[in-house]
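Propose amino acids for all 171 sites.
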């Protein structure tokens, strides 16, 4: 169904029929419920706080011995928050928080998986690009530089890539 056909269909419905349709969508699809819950009660700080605790649990688990280190968990939060329209400053903060948490973990234990470091580099690149495109880079420049410095200090296998990336965006 095209957008034009949908508009035509909706214009033919009564107000009560439209309300019923929306209530049915709200009950049937969790994404619709999530969207309207956010629209009517946009408690962004609470959402970010919950996401930070789940991300921290990926690196410092409470209920198991080993961290899972899945990059997909924070990535799903980023995508979800962007689709909801959460403030760009808060999303950029969450992106950097994820990398900083990973760096806390690597300061306490040795990580041997090369994919971990590649994923953190991609996350770093994504955080820089996102913050530049949304106009919040200047707010985070100190934290971004600190992430690069820690990667170098901890001798991450790809620390030179962090430095090169930062040089490219700083110039």
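Proposal:
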């Amino acid at each position: 169904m095209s957008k034009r056909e949908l508009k035509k269909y909706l214009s033919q419905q009564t107000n009560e029929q439209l309300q019923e349709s929306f209530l049915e969508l709200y009950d049937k699809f969790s994404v619709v419920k999530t969207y309207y819950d956010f629209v009517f009660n946009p408690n962004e700080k609470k959402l970010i706080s919950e996401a930070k605790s789940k991300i921290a649990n990926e690196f410092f688990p409470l209920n198991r011995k080993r961290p899972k280190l899945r990059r997909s968990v924070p990535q799903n939060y980023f995508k979800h928050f962007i689709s909801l329209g959460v403030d760009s400053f808060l999303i950029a903060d969450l992106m950097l928080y994820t990398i900083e948490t990973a760096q806390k973990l690597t300061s306490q234990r040795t990580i041997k998986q090369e994919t971990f470091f590649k994923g953190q580099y991609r996350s770093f690149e994504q955080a820089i690009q996102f913050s530049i495109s949304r106009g919040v880079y200047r707010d985070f420049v100190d934290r971004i530089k600190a992430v690069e410095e820690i990667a170098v200090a901890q001798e991450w296998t790809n620390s030179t890539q962090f430095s090169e990336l930062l040089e490219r965006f700083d110039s």
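The longest helix spans residues 88-108. The radius of gyration is 20 Å.
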